Known about the structure:
Elements: E1 2-7, E2 16-24, E3 29-37, H1 41-54, H2 78-83, H3 85-89, H4 92-123, H5 131-135
Antiparallel strand pairs: 1-2, 2-3
Amino acid sequence: MYWAKELAFGTGERHTLNYNIRVLGRRGVLVLNAVAGIDQLSAIRSQTRDVLAAVDFNEGHRYTDYLPSTDKAAAYGITGLIIGATAAKAGFFKLLIVGLLAFKKALVVGVLALFSAIKRLFGGKPEQVPAEAASQ
């Protein structure tokens, strides 16, 4: 499977092409990227079939060698593969959520400390002048 993304950086007139190719295997995916100017899209598109034909997994590792009785199916589909399920598979999002939950405690303590400091700075009681000094 393959698709192209047109990218614009800043106010530049030239746009960049990021052409993504995914070749599925039995136990993973081969990710290929072509980065060029958007004006080279037709040239890259015409060469995609040749690139795909050059990719050959070893016997037993091809997508067509999948055995439903013994192989574990991925928990995500083609859409997940496109939007980054490789990160999800590696547990990235689970780790991120655990990290945020752990950080939540530190964030709450930090916010409370900040409010306490602001209260002391702006809401403190004015200093009282001793009675002896006030009468002079």
